[in-house]
Amino acid sequence: xxxxxxxxxxxxxxxxxxxxxxxxxxxxxxxxxxxxxxxxxxxxxxxxxxxxxxxxxxxxxxxxxxxxxxxxxxxxxxxxxxxxxxxxxxxxxxxxxxxxxxxxxxxxxxxxxxxxxxxxxxxxxxxxxxxxxxxxxxxxxxxxxxxxxxxxxxxxxxxxxxxxxxxxxxxxxxxxxxxxxxxxxxxxxxxxxxxxxxxxxxxxxxxxxxxxxxxxxxxxxxxxxxxxxxxxxxxxxxxxxxxxxxxxxxxxxxxxxxxxxxxxxxxxxxxxxxxxxxxxxxxxxxxxxxxxxxxxxxxxxxxxxxxxxxxxxxxxxxxxxxxxxxxxxxxx
Length: 332
Prior knowledge:
single chain, alpha/beta, Rossmann fold, Helicase, Ruva Protein, domain 3, 2 domains, two-stranded antiparallel ribbon
């Protein structure tokens, strides 16, 4: 029995090493075109490997479109960019039935959502019906056109963007819909060194062609390897403690209690567990450590912890409160 367990552990270590090399190759290839933005690239890879979607918030011009287009080329997957506007209709997204006069029948015309990797650009500019259709497709991995249901191809990954500096003419995503996203990434400006590298690279009009190093057929295997990453019982208890610390019944004695209006749901617990495993895989480890949980906690909880009016009046951010939670919950 011990020999069998040792063999399985050895096999997992080998799979982790092989997966780590594949992911490293993907990172290296993307970095040939995208300077910096390592957090965004890691978030995109984490979303694909954890089977979730990513909401990205950042000002225009931070290479969001370039990064996800590069990811699609590196994975050799179909890429579609959908520019969300106030006049967009659900049919513009998922497709509709069109009448074919020659045969006298209605035939489906599939929309742009039938792709592997989708950039939902400025999703908060679309009205509620379009947002609902998009999020339903993200959750159920299928859409209905007429009386027929069509399954979306795998991998199916959505990176939605929001512009934090413009609110006029937008339809903010409700908190219940935000909870459907695996991660929310906050992208900042590049460092002066990175911006200088961007200037020198973009200033020369040369086209950088990326080669596929990660094929769609390998995504399923990488997800299986990530799921097999070992998590100790104490780490599982730490994840649950961290999420429940945001809820009213468990934060009565904490210093940050008055700053939280609503805590994170059990979906946050599940996603924090998955992302901690993927973070270990990205570091080529076959086991999760507390640092993995801490590393992904802000991205997983940022859009799930709702702040109170008192927090806003004191100009505290969700990241400030999450940092307080991480300090107050004992680490195993």
